[in-house]
Structure formats: structure tokens, C-alpha cells
Amino acid sequence: xxxxxxxxxxxxxxxxxxxxxxxxxxxxxxxxxxxxxxxxxxxxxxxxxxxxxxxxxxxxxxxxxxxxxxxxxxxxxxxxxxxxxxxxxxxxxxxxxxxxxxxxxxxxxxxxxxxxxxxxxxxxxxxxxxxxxxxxxxxxxxxxxxxxxxxxxxxxxxxxxxxxxxxxxxxxxxxxxxxxxxxxxxxxxxxxxxxxxxxxxxxxxxxxxxxxxxxxxxxxxx
Length: 222
What we know:
The chain is α+β, with helices and mostly antiparallel strands. It has helices at 46-58, 98-103, 121-135, 152-163, 169-178, 204-213; strands spanning 2-11, 16-23, 33-34, 36-39, 65-71, 84-92, 106-110, 182-189, 197-202. The chain folds into 2 domains: 2-135, Nucleoside Triphosphate Pyrophosphohydrolase; 140-213, Winged helix-like DNA-binding domain superfamily/Winged helix DNA-binding domain (Arc Repressor Mutant, subunit A, Orthogonal Bundle), CATH 1.10.10. The strands form 2 sheets. Strands 1, 2, 3, 4, 5, 6 and 7 form a 7-stranded mixed beta sheet that branches. Strands 8-9 form a two-stranded antiparallel sheet. A hairpin with a 7-residue loop joins β8 and β9 (197-202).
């Protein structure tokens, strides 16, 4: 029994959703790109194994993680019979422990241009990305990838990176503002335009309520 962690990060400068990958250190498929994963210890649960793997790779605790799917095809691993449960995590790229990342030989790769992955890991990523795209319609999970303050353009860029689609700006702004989840700040972001764009942050109580109860934020993206 094993777990594989699909670790998404958002690069706010490159406006891309990225995936943390490692080079596999043993045969079969040694040296090829792989998800971060490992076997489950006798004294730990599936969740505990996923948390351990994430911590060892990134140094992060208390991260949003969710169990996704169980993969049990007889021939999925040519080395031996392995049943793997996938988990996905959403983290801010800048929060990761760089020393741990480098020590593990981990690298960020854009979702739009992933290298060839071992075994059925590409299937895992595709299925989880589809699941994430569904979840951001009803839960504020994607917001975990943003800094504390952000512009509406940066928020829209995040959704476009998750959906891998261009979103109508007027429709997006109208819907997100109508949710009454954002607090407009006096401060402006001035590095990308002379006029500048106001920063926003999430209203804490409203945000927590949405995390518990959900919402419906359909941008008509297929």
C-alpha cells in the first residue's frame, strides 16, 4: 500500500498552476519524473502517510490536503503489486522549504507543459486537476494559493490557471464581488501598471463560512 501526493502550487508572477515533481531514486523507472510518494508504515494511517510525505518534501504542516482516488490496476507498477491512494495539496510556492526541496531533488513544472511521468501518474494528475476544477466552483480551496493581499486581476489569473481557460473579466468581477467575500484595501499594486490596482483580502468570517458551507461560483467554464 502506498500514497502519492499531487502537490499544486501557484506562481503568481508567471500566472501558472504548477506541480511539484521529483526524480525517482530507485528502479523501476529510476531517474524519471514522478509524483512524491511512498509506502505506508505499519503504524500509520493513509492520512498520516500523506502528511508525512508532504512534510518531508516541503517542510509544511497544517496544509489543505484531500484524499482523491485509489489506483489498483494489477500492472500499474512493473516492479511489484502496488495499490496507491492519491492525495492532493494546495500550497503557496514561496512557502516551501527550499533546502528540503533541493535536498529531495524536487522541481516545479507548469501544468500546461508537464514532462512524461512514470506509471499512471499522468492519469492521477489529470483526474485530480479535473476534481480541483469542480471543487473551486463550490469551495474556496483555490484561494489557498494566493498571498494575503491580491488584486482582482491576480485572483482572476489564479482561476484561469486552474481552469486552463480564459475567463470573461466583467463576468468574473461581477460574480466575485457579489459574493461579499472580499475587503478592498487602500493600498495599490503599482508594479504592473501606472494607474495601479487596488489590493483586496478575504473577509475572514465570510471565508471560513464558505469553507464550511460552500458556495456556487460557476463561471461557465467547460
